[in-house]
Amino acid sequence: MNRAPLFLLYINVLIIATCGLIYELLAGTLASYLLGDSVTQFSLIIGIYLSALGAGAWISSFVHEKLARCFIEVELGVALVGGFSVPILFLAFGYVSWFQPLLYGLVFLIGTLVGLELPLLMRLLKEEVDFSDLVSRVLTFDYIGALVAAILFPMLLVPNLGLVRTSLLFGILNALVGLWGTWLLRPLMRQKGLGALRGRAMLVIGLLVAGMIKAESVTHLAEENQLSGKIVHAESSPYQRILVTENKTGFQLYLNGHLQFNSVDEYRYHEALVHPPMSAVEAPQRILVLGGGDGLAVREVLRYPSVKAITLVDLDPAMTSLAEHFPPLGTLSEHSLQDPSVTVINQDAFLWVDTAHEKYDVAIIDFPDPGSFSVGKLYTSFFFNRLRQVLTDSAVLNIQCSSPLVSPESYWCVVTTLEDCGFEVQPFHATVPTFGVWGFALASATPLSKPLNLPVSVAAELRFLDQNVMDHLFVTPRDLQRVDTEVNRLNNQVLVHYYEREWSRWQ
User: Fold this and answer.
1) Taking the C-alpha atoms of 97, 100, 102 and 107 in order, what is their torsion angle to the nearest 10 degrees?
2) Do residues 480 and 405 touch, judged by C-beta distance below 8 A?
3) Are strands 342-345 and 309-313 parallel, antiparallel or unpaired?
4) What residues are labeled active site?
5) Are residues 307 and 325 in the same domain?
């Protein structure tokens, strides 16, 4: 075997390693998307996949004949199982009660097949290359493949192709490697049956290509089944999957499968989020909104004539521009993000606070729930202490804290963390029919006056709040009383663990 085929076989190693890690990342992402509990799911997927690699390597020791043909057959198996794994799991989630065994079984099967490939290929090459050189070269290309997958997956593949098309694309790539191998390894195989092997490779490629063509239909079918509504807008950004569904009563926004608001009753949530802190400051002028890229919180802020400037910090440009692509949101938000007083900054708020130069009178924090470490860091004492640096001495902030009824430890953990940072906190809650009882924490570095006086001119424009309702928001019933929790620190992220444990009981 000359140098050119040897080099091409090393390229096969690169492709195999890249595809294998992509399938693992796809399974972990899909598991956290559908099941939540992202830390546990990714940990399980990684553990199962790595153990399956070992099982595959062990099984390869029992293959003694027709190594080249076996390698190609395994490659086609990886293509078929790996390529269709995400579409199968997406569709199965809404129909079968044994989804998790199916998920872990597919991960183990893919890992076993991938674990078979490299030992077989190394045995094919051992007669052509010195053993020490063989091991070093194969492992080098294997690790390079892992790096390629790690870079491509979050930056290019998922944002542009989505999970389903990415899975099918790499299945096609695996099948092409198998087909290519029928020529590269031809000297090591008998001619008998070679045509049938190539025919099977082409059949697998054809099936996967058909899946690519129908990928959008599969995705919509699966997502509509999960979300129980007609999808009227869907896009994948580098940060999240954005879906808008519609039913007879209105439309709903989902981020990574999690409901953010229902147009029917969002006003209750956003009035409770915005007007208590705005009422706590006399004539607020400079307002900071963290999260809230839908513009609904900003809509409420703009009701105050004293406001001169609003800074909205939201990570995802696709979210802050959603109203341009889905006009009903623009109508609902009253095109608030187009107001000349609003400055939109697309940056991670965790990093932005270090670069901010202005001081704000009110901060309204509308982050997603802390279901992952990437979001949980925005609820830590580390972040709250840095946030204080961009607030005036008398500034007031309000933050949504999940449900004090469903997840009391999560809720009171946020309150405890704010207090640990020197804030005086007034916890309160509002009832939003879509979500139930929802909690907030009003906080300031200086004592907060009670009761808060909702401006009469503002109250006249609201659908939910008036002075009487505002006063009752701060009455804590017996079943929502405080529970002891730890402070959520950056090095432990205890809030994420509270949240995952509490909400998993309701899923």
Assistant:
1) 170
2) yes
3) parallel
4) 366
5) yes
Residues 394 and 319 in one domain: yes
The answer to whether 222 touches 167, Cβ cutoff 8 Å, is no
Place of tokens 């051992």: 126
Residue that finishes a domain, picked among 206, 240, 261: 261
CATH number, residue 344: 3.40.50.150
pLDDT digits (tens, 9 = 90+) for 433-452: 999 999 999 999 998 877 78
- Does 47 share its domain with 182? yes
DSSP state letters, 415-484: HHHHHHTT-EEEEEEEEETTTEEEEEEEEESSPPPSS----HHHHTT-SS--HHHHHHHT---GGG----
Cα(507)–Cα(495) distance, integer angstroms:
18
Specify the CATH number for the domain of residue 234. Answer: 2.30.140.10
Cut 0.70: pTM above it: yes
Q: Encoding tokens for residue 19?
A: 């595809």
241 with 188, same domain: the answer is no
Tokens for 407, please give them.
């997840």
Distances in Å between the alpha carbon of 443 and those of 347, 431, 447?
A: 24, 20, 9
What's the domain range around 105?
A: 3-222
Q: 279-294: per-residue pLDDT in tens?
A: 999 999 999 999 999 9
> How far is residue 206's CA from residue 77's CA, in Å, rounded to a whole number?
14
Other residues' Cβ atoms within 10 Å of the Cβ of residue 250? 15
Instruction: Give the number of domains in the chain.
Output: 3
* Region of poorest pLDDT, from 79-93, 138-152, 165-179, 202-216: 138-152
